[in-house]
Write a structure and sequence with these properties.
There is one protein chain. The chain is of the alpha+beta class and 132 residues long. The chain contains 6 helices and 5 strands, in the order βααβββαβααα. It has one domain. A 3-stranded mixed beta sheet has the order 1-2-5. The protein has a two-stranded antiparallel ribbon with strand order 3-4. The protein is globular. It binds iron/sulfur cluster. The site of iron/sulfur cluster (SF4) has 7 residues, from loops.
Length: 132
């Protein structure tokens, strides 16, 4: 099984604990979060709408909300992607292990998670801020 995930969603998945924009979104994200933990799953990474966006009510005409918000989201993706190899199809377990090593401090995600409205609900971000 193969997943397409945009850069910043690799962090969102690590912090996901069942919150989201609507029921369809939560159902889909829960499913993807299970799939990404399977050893046979592979992941391609991008800075564009992905398998999570496809069930999101904020995806309008192929972008996230509007031009300004979309730019902000894409720059978050690129902050993550610059630490990875975008040409590679990763084994999912390998990729998320690599993410744990790269993004291990609050400082390492400051440019990505700082303004996120979900940070208080995000287990990943909360863990990093508690380890400060
Ligand atoms: S469309 Fe925007 S808000 Fe929705 S999942 Fe994608 S990046 Fe997140």
């Amino acid at each position: 099984m193969k997943l397409n995930l945009r850069g910043h969603h690799l962090l969102c998945l690590k912090g996901f604990q069942g919150y989201g924009y609507d029921e369809d979104f939560i159902k889909n994200m829960t499913l993807i979060n299970s799939k990404r933990k399977l050893p046979q799953t592979t992941v391609s990474i991008c800075d564009c709408p992905d398998d999570i966006c496809s069930s999101c009510p904020n995806l309008i005409d192929g972008i996230c909300e509007n031009e300004i918000q979309n730019e902000r989201i894409v720059s978050m993706d690129r902050e993550v992607l610059k630490k990875l190899d975008i040409t590679k199809e990763y084994g999912s377990i390998e990729l998320f292990n690599e993410m744990d090593e790269i993004f291990a401090t609050e400082e390492s995600v400051s440019e990505i998670c700082f303004n996120c409205k979900w940070s208080e609900k995000c287990l990943f971000y909360q863990k990093l801020s508690n380890n400060r």
